[in-house]
Amino acid sequence: MPTTPRFIDLVRKTADSLDCHIEGVSTDATTGSLTVAGHGFLTSRTNASNRQYEGDELYLSDAQASSTLTAALTATGTSFTVADGSGFAASTTRPYVVSVDGEYILVTRSVNTFTVLSGGRGRIGTLPAAHANGATVYGPVITPNPTDIAAYVASTGVFTPGAAWTADPGTVVSFDIFTRGVSIWDVRRAINNALWKMRYRAYFPVTLVTDGDMRAAGFANWTASASATVSKVTNTNARDGPQALRVLAGAASQYAQSDTIFVDPTNAGSWYVWARVRADVGTARLIAYDVTNDANILTEDWALRGWGTLDFVVTLPATAEALAFRLMSVANADDTYWNPVIAYPTGATELLLPSWVERKNQIIDVVTAQVSMNRADEIRYRPVTWAKPIEDQSNPNNQVRLQMLPGSQGPLWIDAYRAYDTLAGDAQTTFVDEDWLVLFASVELCKMLGSRPPSENTSHFQREYATRARNLKVWNQDRMPRLAENVLEYIG
After folding, report:
1. Residue 96 and residue 120 share a domain
2. Distance between CA atoms of 91 and 165, rounded to whole angstroms?
């Protein structure tokens, strides 16, 4: 069954499965030592080897900071600023790696600004990518972390790092040791490779509203009004997908506004709009907003308790060049939840699908929604005949789109397979079959480490790869039988 394991726990379990990981908790630490009083690290055996952990990698697993980008970062950007850099390791000369979305970046820091070193984008097997305003940046609290173990004394349980830490780690410190030449970066990369190749099946709304399905991390695509508290929630208030957008009003008429959608002012036409909403307290209001003329075009309210739907067609003014949607909580302290918000022009004959839809055979069906007559919080999906996926291999950005009959309207979803999102921070989680992911990641790790220069460790990972790859192929075929091999990259 799917679970929500943390990234650091997935790292540990993947490394454990290949017998290259040990973890523990210290009883004391300084900038130049880590002391462990527990059995296995501290021993009175006179023949215990002081070289047992020499050269292995030591990682202080509770020493990770995070903050958010204050502006978008392009794929070629050479610096970026976060809201609060005080939690990260001080650095103007000693570089370290931070992670943003799925990219690792080599940087130095001064106050809230990170400077990217030459060649520092897309490190450790990742690719340079654009990152949205509000994306979370993860990095070390102290450096170096991880570090090699320069010395170990079995009779005292004292580890000496290869370089002194920039700050005292504290007294009780959770740590991980990676053996057999494995680095935590290797394991992280293997897990993200696996997540990128794995697929899960779900219903995904078709909408031109950026993050209209509310699946993106954070709310960088939604601008909060002055007294609105906007957040993503993953509790029972998320009905159609893993998250919903919450708008809590601190005064009357507070809202979250979508990113702007640019329209043709000579042929703005009409738009179909459909949203699922829950008014936990007060009244929810959906506003089609003319950004060009700073005017509300049409509003619809939902004031009943529980989930409901707002469904309308709005005609844009001929002068409108930009459109947005406001998700409003009408009175002070009103508390509303939204998921999803679907919008597209009714005259559209084609709608681009998200870039994660790379092949038409990822899509099982195109469906519309029918709300239950007895329960407003239940949606039933039924296939449609007026929209079908088509593929355009000549388009490098959006290869798959929906072909629609002119004048068609209604809330649309695709029943499709999608890759899991990659992970960046230790505490991040993923909703996935944990055993499946660990097996997949162990295969990726074996493939990576087995291709390194020959050694005793190389032979170990090559042997492990052969068995695990066979097991993984059987597991994949059982879970994703409909996916062709050009969509799912089978191992083995």
Report:
1. yes
2. 12
What pLDDT is stored for residue 193 in this prediction? 92
pLDDT of residue 194: 93
254 or 379, which is more confident?
Answer: 254
Q: How many domains does the chain have?
A: 3
Same domain, 323 and 245: yes
pLDDT digits (tens, 9 = 90+) for 427-442: 998 888 899 899 999 9
Confidence of residue 397 (pLDDT cuts 50, 70, 90): low
Picking from 419, 443, 467, the residue at the C-terminal end of a domain is 419
Mean pLDDT of the chain, nearest integer = 88
Structure tokens of 115? 């400077």
Q: What's the confidence (pLDDT) of residue 491?
A: 35
Residue 177 near residue 23, CB atoms below 8 Å: yes
d(CA 405, CA 258): 27
> Can you state the angle between helices 434-450 and 7-17, rounded to 10 degrees?
60
* Contact by Cβ (8 Å): 222, 245: yes
The answer on 372 and 271 residing in a single domain is: yes
Q: Which DSSP letter does residue 44 get? A: -
Same domain as 93, residue 3: no
Domain with residue 349: its CATH number is 2.60.120.260
Please list, in sequence order, all residues whose beta carbon lies within 8 angstroms of the beta carbon of residue 82, skipping any fewer than 6 positions away.
Answer: 67, 68, 69, 70, 112, 114, 137
115: which strand partners?
79, 108
Tokens standing for 346?
A: 């009714």
Residue 50, beta-bridge partner list:
none
Strand boundaries in 330-477, DSSP class E: 335-345, 350-352, 363-371, 379-383, 387-391, 400-404, 412-419, 432-433
Question: Which of 133, 156, 184 is the endpoint of a domain?
Answer: 184
pLDDT tens string 31-59: 999 999 887 888 877 767 888 999 999 99
pLDDT at 5 over 70: yes
The secondary element (H helix, E strand) that includes residue 223 is: strand 222-224
> Do 249 and 389 share a domain, yes or no?
yes
Residues 259 and 158 in one domain: no
Q: Which domain holds residue 161?
A: 15-184
CB distance 203 to 271 below 8 Å = no
Residues facing 37 on adjacent strands = none
Contact 310, 278 (CB under 8 A): no
Q: Is 412 helix (H, G, I), strand (E, B) or coil?
A: strand
Q: How far apart are CA 326 and CA 363, in angstroms?
A: 30
d(CA 428, CA 409): 38
Say yes or no: 110 and 165 in one domain.
yes
Indicate the length of the chain as a whole number: 492
Q: Per-residue pLDDT tens for 149-206?
A: 999 999 899 999 999 999 999 999 999 999 999 999 999 999 999 998 888 888 999 9
Q: Is the pTM of this model over 0.85?
A: no
Do 365 and 466 reside in the same domain of the chain? no
Amino acid identity at 402: L
Mean pLDDT of 242-268: 91
